[in-house]
């Protein structure tokens, strides 16, 4: 089959690799019909490089049609399914708490990591990912969401990751009707977090340096700002001088505007792998400009909810400010299946309350992955969300 593979820093290529085969009775193989590129893939593209192996198949936002269903997979041939990005057993203590990203069966203990994830480096089990013609799905009786046949793929695809991720971010932010919420980063995750905030009745402010991302958010009732100092004072004024009740950080470690950290990230990409791994683990890659800004902006006693991914063990956190402002902090990978039953009716609704029809800017053949990664990372050609289609002619 054809698959998107990691080859090196900022280097992915589409290669012919072996088709996946079913190992276990609860595995399924799906033929991929749509697979998106995520902001998290950009971390692999650059900073998580030391944990990648040449030829790794990447991708974790995938849907398609079941072509082979193990007898205990709970699926049948031809089922149309969306595949959540975490891999979990559904039976352990963590799974029973709804914490599938901490699954005690699939945890990658060698690296002290949580549950395995599709296509996400050695840290998360080196499981072949979904930017490919076919995908093997382990524990298929647990993860995949069966969906109907009538609506187009893009209505369902984001249940694999960014919609539940944004939903979890807003739920963790504790937002109730009438609250105020600021969202840093209006990439795909931030777009949905901001819209979900509106859907739940909050006043929502969105901050992003990229104009077309601000324009998209503004179409959904978000008050938008560039990432600058004026934004903070305007948002504070609009919230009785206190700052918003909650802030979602949907940027993570690709934040723009921190040259020192950027140099350290460069270094992790250039050093020989073992040394680079050490540097990344002990904090060399920290890019925490947005995190600090969010701590500054949130009101005293408010909540900070991180969905952006951070790495590095020695981030200098402003503990004095966090303590003094009495800030609650929640974060983590998304426990996708805990939220998808709430989200499914929203993506199927003809009213499209979360605006799923207004996110994808590019649908391209799988073969275009190298150009698509570059465009998404550089934010050229108005690119906000790319879906790769293995069946499209290139
Ligand atoms: N927790 C999870 O389970 C989970 C799941 C999916 C994605 N993520 C993470 O969420 C983050 C966002 O993902 P995405 O797909 O939206 O990616 P993205 O890279 O498209 O979005 C990041 C956005 O942040 C903006 N940005 C950069 N610097 C900024 C600054 N200083 N101030 C304000 N905005 C700034 C960028 O312009 C961009 O629009 C990533 O870190 C990704 O890894 C986490
Ligand atoms: Zn993702
Ligand atoms: Zn489990």
Strand content: 15-25%
Query: What are the bound molecules?
Result: nicotinamide-adenine-dinucleotide, zinc ion
Structural class: alpha/beta
Q: Give helix % range.
A: 25-40%
Find the CATH topology of the largest domain.
Quinone Oxidoreductase, Chain A, domain 1
CATH architecture of the largest domain: Alpha-Beta Complex
Can you tell me the CATH superfamily of the largest domain?
Medium-chain alcohol dehydrogenases, catalytic domain
Labels describing this entry:
28% helix, 19% strand, alpha/beta, Rossmann fold, six-stranded parallel beta sheet, binds nicotinamide-adenine-dinucleotide, binds zinc ion, seven-stranded mixed beta sheet, 394 residues
Can you give me a brief rundown of this structure?
This protein is of the alpha/beta class and 394 residues long. 28% of the residues lie in helices and 19% in strands. The chain has 13 helices and 15 strands.
What does this structure look like?
This protein has helices at 39-45, 93-96, 153-157, 162-172, 188-199, 211-218, 229-238, 259-270, 273-281, 289-297, 319-324, 340-348, 369-378, and strands spanning 2-8, 11-16, 28-36, 61-69, 80-83, 134-137, 145-146, 180-184, 203-207, 223-225, 246-249, 303-306, 328-331, 362-365, 386-389. It is an alpha/beta fold. The protein has two domains: 2-161 and 335-389, Medium-chain alcohol dehydrogenases, catalytic domain (Quinone Oxidoreductase, Chain A, domain 1); 163-331, 3-Layer(aba) Sandwich (Rossmann fold), CATH 3.40.50.720. The strands form three sheets. Strands 3, 4, 5, 6, 7, 14 and 15 form a seven-stranded mixed beta sheet that branches. Strand 1 and strand 2 form a beta hairpin. The chain is globular and about 60 Å long. The protein starts with a strand and ends in a 5-residue tail after the last strand.
